[in-house]
């Protein structure tokens, strides 16, 4: 199987990926691979597809909101999309003027928070690790996002507080998203737009607007 190269990943994006960002993403890969040997971070079979399955999947969010400076990644886990976003934002030149970009990595499992903090410290990333449940966190950000955290009906509850503070909601979802949206509609009202994922034609990038409770 031919696996995507960093250069091929970068070429798919409108967001400019600097060489320094590629170097940090390569360092992140090694830390991830080492960490995966002692804890369940990602499926081992997905590591050879790191640049497509994990990096491109995460980085495509910056094409959706290239102007966003602050992000919250709910259920940050192994660092997707949050660590990838923070690496790319660290090296961004398009956001050089104005407030510095920052990513909040929200994760309830302490062990995973320790892993995330190690990555943030080692790579000197513009990110803060928050060891708490998403619904307990109150920070104002431009975008709230998540990947492989929970079904949409629960995910919208996790993100509700951020959205009420003005956050734009962009979520990375799999092929079952249609049924998830139907279930979510029983509890929530919202406007939704979806597009095909760059990393997998079965995946979807979901944009949620005007979220409110159905009753």
UniProtKB/TrEMBL annotation:
Keywords: Cytoplasm, Methyltransferase, rRNA processing, S-adenosyl-L-methionine, Transferase. GO terms for cellular component: cytosol. Belongs to the methyltransferase superfamily. RNA methyltransferase RsmG family. Its main location: cytoplasm. It catalyses: guanosine(527) in 16S rRNA + S-adenosyl-L-methionine = N(7)-methylguanosine(527) in 16S rRNA + S-adenosyl-L-homocysteine. One of its GO terms (molecular function) is rRNA (guanine-N7-)-methyltransferase activity. S-adenosyl-L-methionine binds at residues 75, 80, 134-135, 147. Specifically methylates the N7 position of guanine in position 527 of 16S rRNA. Pfam families: GidB. InterPro entries: rRNA_ssu_MeTfrase_G (IPR003682), SAM-dependent_MTases_sf (IPR029063). This is Ribosomal RNA small subunit methyltransferase G. It comes from Asticcacaulis benevestitus DSM 16100 = ATCC BAA-896. Its EC number is 2.1.1.170. It is found in: Cytoplasm. The keyword ATP-binding does not apply.
